[in-house]
Amino acid sequence: MKNLLLRVLPLFLIFCLLCPMTAFADTGGSGNIDGGGGGMGQGTSTNSWSPGNEGVRVTVVRASDHAVVTTPFDFTNKAPSAGIYHFGKVSKLQYNNGVSLNPVKGGYIYKNPGQTMPRIISTNGSNNIEAIKKYFCSEYVVKRIAEITGMNYDVLIGGKYKILLEPLAYYKFEGNMFATTATEAALYDEQTSGLLRRRMVSLTHKNLPLAMFLEVSDLGYPAWGGSKTSAATNADIKSSLGLGIVRFEKTPEEPQIEAYDYEYRVNTNVITAVRVSGGQSDPDSPTRVSFNIGGQTYSVGNVYYPDGDSQLAWVKWKTPDTEQNMTIAVTVSGPGSTAKTTLNVKIVDLDKNTPPNPVADDRNDSFSRASVPSRAVKSTASWSVWRPWWQEYWVWHGDDEDGYWCDHGWYEFDLDRYSASLTADMSIQCDSKNPTASGTVMKSGYGINQTVTGSISSNQSSAVTQPQNAVSYFPEFGYETYWRLLERMGTGRFEFQKNPYSTYKNRTHFSPIWMPDGAYTVNTWLIDAWTPDGMLSANLTDSLTIKGNLWQDWHAGPLKP
User: Fold this and answer.
1) From the centroid of its chain, how far is CA 473?
2) Is 479 within 8 Å of 370 (Cβ atoms)?
């Protein structure tokens, strides 16, 4: 019965179906009374405890950050003595966060619940777990808690809060009556150098802390896997024992979509992603994301994430070969509801501003060198995918001879992490038809060739694209106005397109005849390496040296006879 909404997991007491409530407590742990505790031993006139002298400390905690949001109070069926020693109203969470233990005599405040609580602290390891669950998950008790704390009942059961329960005992120690939770008893034992444990070990270090414990971690406390019949250490009590938790099914949330607008290049394989959250998506209630792009629907099914978290959903597609503005409609179908949004996408063609034909008498007397501009650069990306799996928890229903096993498990989530990194390089060199070039030195007016390489490495190669476009900008235009879209020569390799002004139709770019001596630096933006985490890109440069100009290679004179 893998029903996530009715997860009857193991957190002892505490998660049960609240039949009379509009929301129901969801089990997050297993019976801390199931087999916990044991015999009490013999008391004395100065150190003793009577079964039934007990209570439960109740604290409302915010689920998201484990913050205590109400002053704790104590439920008990008894009327403790006026002069009893106690330590105020402090929860286990507060002690674990550094609140110190301060004994007080008298003035102990308690609340009688109205409906009698079932027995909490076992003396033989066999409490009525079902009765305890039914009691603390009942509409009556939760409404009583809301009344005492001043919280709105509907807010309390709305799923954003949990109820922390701590068993407490009223007992005589060294002739004085004390009221302590299990955590307070452990802290007080440390203050008394172990005397409390020596006098009251069966109660303070066994039956009281083992009255409630977690079998599924929650609120930062681990599941208890230790002995359920032996006295515990102070360290174990403080870290893991003496607590139970009631949590409530969240009101179903509409899925939320976090989306961004995109700019793409024409005729390019791209990735469009949105982030989905709200509620919980798992194999029993999966989320589905649909992208309507250019009249075609791309569907991403089985999008999973735990409650309070989110998941990227993405689709890979190819842009059209003409410039245009597009609208992508995104629909998210979650458990019982849907959400919609739209993305505005601009498709641009970069192959439109190639430099004009250079001529021999070009001049630019006002030229000044510009710095290479900063462009969007991203060399690494990371993303993750939630992977749900079923945690079995088999429970026997019935008596010893007549019954059946039932799987009351729940979904756990593992997070698979992925990443991608971009490596890129560029080089320019003198054109092969440049007759006077020497290494990296050339005269102005001649051409240059260029090679750009780029590659993405990723542990999820199906979720990325290799770089698909490279654009080069030149110093004579201030790295703007005109540029060259390089031609893809294979995966991750780019060169200049064939130049129609080249006599030999070379893949070349001509430097202007007027370019002054000095560094001639070309800037190339390598782009369109797409991942679910966005586009990876690199801003590259390489330089040659200008010395002299093309006219120096020409000589005008009379022909010899």
Assistant:
1) 40
2) yes
> From CA 186, how far away is CA 191, in angstroms rounded?
9
pLDDT of residue 45: 82
What's the full length of the chain, in residues?
561
- Return the SS3 of 462: helix
The residue type at 4: L
Token pair 């742990």 in the structure block, residue: 29
Q: For residues 430 and 369, give the distance between their C-alpha atoms in angstroms, rounded to a whole number.
A: 21
Count Cβ atoms within 10 A of the Cβ of residue 482 and give its class: 0-12 exposed, 13-18 middle, 19 or more buried.
middle
Please count the CA atoms within 13 angstroms of the CA of 450 that sit on its side-chain side: 35
| Edge-to-edge order in the sheet of strand 324-334 | 262-265, 337-348, 324-334, 287-293, 296-303
Place of tokens 């989110």: 310
Q: In this structure, are residues 330 and 340 in contact, taking their beta carbons and an 8 Å threshold?
A: yes
Residue 16, SS3? coil
SS3 371: coil
> Token pair for residue 246?
């009631």
φ, ψ (nearest 5 deg) of residue 549? -140, 170
DSSP annotation string for 136-149: HTSHHHHHHHHHHH
Question: How many distinct helices (H) and strands (E) make up the chain?
Answer: 7, 28
Q: What are phi and psi of 211, to 5 degrees?
A: -65, -30
Instruction: Look up residue 122 and give its two tokens.
Output: 């076992």
Separation of alpha carbons 26 and 32, rounded Å: 16
The predicted structure's pLDDT at residue 417: 97
Report the candidate in 516, 280, 322 with the shortest Cα–Cα distance to residue 412. Answer: 280
C-alpha closest to that of 550 among 400, 396, 446, 431: 446
Query: Letter for the amino acid at 559?
Result: L
Averages of pLDDT over runs of 10 residues in the chain (561 residues) are 31 33 31 41 80 96 90 96 95 95 95 93 75 85 95 88 95 96 97 96 95 86 88 95 86 74 96 91 91 96 90 97 96 85 96 91 91 96 96 79 81 95 98 93 96 98 97 97 96 96 93 96 98 97 96 70 58
Phi, psi of 208 (to 5 degrees): -70, -55
pLDDT of residue 253: 64
Torsion of CA 395, 401, 403, 404, to 10 degrees: 60
Q: What is the largest CA-CA distance in the chain?
A: 140
Q: Report the distance separating Cα 480 and Cα 147, nearest Å.
A: 69
Q: At 290, is the secondary structure helix, strand, or coil? A: strand
DSSP string, 321-355: SS-EEEEEEEEEEETTEEEEEEEEEEEE--TT-PP
- The answer to whether 325 touches 81, Cβ cutoff 8 Å, is no
How distant, in Å, are the alpha carbons of 57, 266, 449, 509 from that of 498?
81, 20, 10, 9
Q: Residue 232: left (phi > 0), alpha (psi -120 to 50), or beta?
A: beta
3-state secondary structure at position 430 = strand
